[in-house]
Amino acid sequence: MKQLICVACLFLILIPPSFSQRFRTIYAIGDTVTYNGKNYVARSITFQFNKPLLQDPINPTLDSIALFLEKNDSLVIEVGAHGSIQNDVSYCSKLTQRRAQTIVDFLIAKGIPQNRLVARGYGQSKILYPKQVIQKEKDKAKQEWMHRMNRRIEFRILNQ
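Predicted structure:
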């Protein structure tokens, strides 16, 4: 088993193979673990209503992701922005692309090279709760929660 190398709350662990599996690289961002090809959902990144502007330009989650990318300087990541079904499909696609680009611009400003970042706005193409499911729900608070779950930012490691 490889040893744990801890850098603040970001670390890299290599876990031993179980049976005939190969080693898998595990990355941790804060207390959330992800691995190559798996998405890390950052619910603490929020935007102003119907705008690509961050709700709060001081964001510890984005700061930790910048530090993570600094320490893992060979990684290329995708910043994926997802929208809810509350807007027009075309508008939502454009808004999510602009929101993904806002995060990429934030990370570039923190010193991460642009060639290691891919901004992708998914719009409504990968929603978690479709319109039919939301409409069946009678509780308005639960409906709003489903819309919030559809609106999300995901980070995915593309290559090492």
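Summary: The first helix runs from residue 60 to 71.
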